[in-house]
Design a protein that fits this description.
Strand content: 25-35%
Low-confidence stretches: none
Mean pLDDT: 91
CATH topology of one domain: Aldehyde Oxidoreductase, domain 3
Organism: Deinococcus daejeonensis
Helix content: 10-25%
InterPro entries: Ald_Oxase/Xan_DH_a/b (IPR000674), Ald_Oxase/Xan_DH_a/b_sf (IPR036856), Ald_Oxase/xanthine_DH-like (IPR016208), AldOxase/xan_DH_MoCoBD1 (IPR008274), AldOxase/xan_DH_Mopterin-bd_sf (IPR037165)
Radius of gyration: 25 Å
Strand order of the largest sheet: 3-5-1-11-8-9-10
Shape: globular
CATH architecture of one domain: Alpha-Beta Complex
Protein name: Aldehyde oxidase/xanthine dehydrogenase a/b hammerhead domain-containing protein
Pfam family, one: Ald_Xan_dh_C
Keywords: Molybdenum, Oxidoreductase
CATH superfamily of one domain: Aldehyde oxidase/xanthine dehydrogenase, a/b hammerhead
CATH class of one domain: Alpha Beta
Order of helices and strands: HHEEHEEEHEHEEEHEHEEE
């Protein structure tokens, strides 16, 4: 049947029965034997350094298999993406940053054990307030899609000065967080059947991601062929699942420390606001010039937005 004849016709989606009945096997539900459950340790200061982590109470809890911190985490080989380069130093760069994780037999034990870990910090000054006239504002060399930051064509100032009709408006939008129905889940299995045979190592990920995950391979010391990625269902994205985030590295590091055991983690709704990206607030000034009959003769659009330090 051609496309024109399909328009307006009822068509059954292949995955509709599974999704409607709640039986669609998303990444978190993919069957594996004896999975372990991860709950992260996150910073509660916006900037500084971790002075100490006391995990003795958590480690003594029955069912806890691992308390992972920067002191015992496997080393990442390359800093391919600063957002993913976690547990490699005591530095804290933002509130909610992953500074460790607890892995246990059940999600309840992992979450309870994480609450027993005591972290002390050396605080550092921070400035997280965005404003268009910030003294450290700058023009990046490139912006989205590697376009030039500033482009000009014609004498806009002259057109604005002589136009019989002008409009000068400033628009602001707040920070917006994408929150799809399915929060970020991941399940990681580190296979290391032969420690003496590097090619026997591989990582299997069950993930809900639309983005390119191969940046993870060199960070973990793997070739792309040594990574197996399953994305059965995304569960909604709205931009947040268009690229890898730090929870993938966190779970992979835990799996690497416990080779052969599946380690699974699904973010809480609260954690979605800290480590999975967002649409930043933006300040936009638009100026228009037009002739008396409404024909546009000039347009300017100046935008200021925050970026990561």
């Amino acid at each position: 049947m051609n496309a024109e004849r399909q328009i307006g016709q009822d068509r059954v989606r292949v995955d509709r029965p599974l999704k409607v009945t709640g039986t669609a096997p998303y990444a978190y539900e993919q069957p594996t034997d004896a999975p372990l459950h991860l709950y992260p340790l996150t910073s509660n200061v916006p900037r500084g350094r971790v002075r100490s982590i006391d995990a003795r109470a958590a480690e003594a809890l029955p069912g806890v298999q691992l308390v992972l911190t920067q002191e015992n985490a496997p080393k990442l080989l390359v800093k391919a993406d600063p957002e993913l380069y976690i547990l490699q130093s005591p530095d804290v760069l933002y509130w909610g940053q992953f500074i460790g994780a607890v892995v246990a037999d059940t999600p309840e034990i992992a979450r309870h054990a994480a609450s027993l870990v005591t972290v002390t910090y050396d605080d550092a000054p921070f400035d997280a307030h965005f404003r268009p006239d910030h003294p450290q504002a700058y023009r990046p060399r490139r912006v989205n899609a590697f376009k030039k930051t500033d482009t000009h064509e014609g004498d806009v100032d002259a057109a604005l000065a002589h136009a019989p009709v002008t409009v000068d408006r400033t628009y602001t939008t707040p920070t917006e967080h994408h929150n799809p129905i399915g929060p970020h889940p991941v399940k990681a299995i580190w296979h290391d059947e032969s420690p003496l045979n590097v090619t026997a190592r591989r990582l299997t990920l069950y993930d809900a991601n639309q983005g390119h995950l191969m940046v993870l391979a060199p960070m973990l010391g793997l070739l792309p062929a040594q990574m197996i990625i399953h994305t059965p269902y995304v569960g909604g994205s709205f931009g947040t699942k268009g690229m890898p985030h730090a929870h993938l590295i966190l779970t992979a590091l835990a799996a690497k420390t416990l080779p052969g055991r599946p380690v699974k983690y699904a973010m809480t709704r609260q954690q979605m606001f800290d480590t999975t990206g967002y649409r930043p607030e933006i300040h936009q000034r638009v100026r228009l010039a037009a002739s008396a009959d409404g024909r546009l003769t000039a347009l300017t659009h100046d935008a200021v937005a925050p970026t990561a330090r």
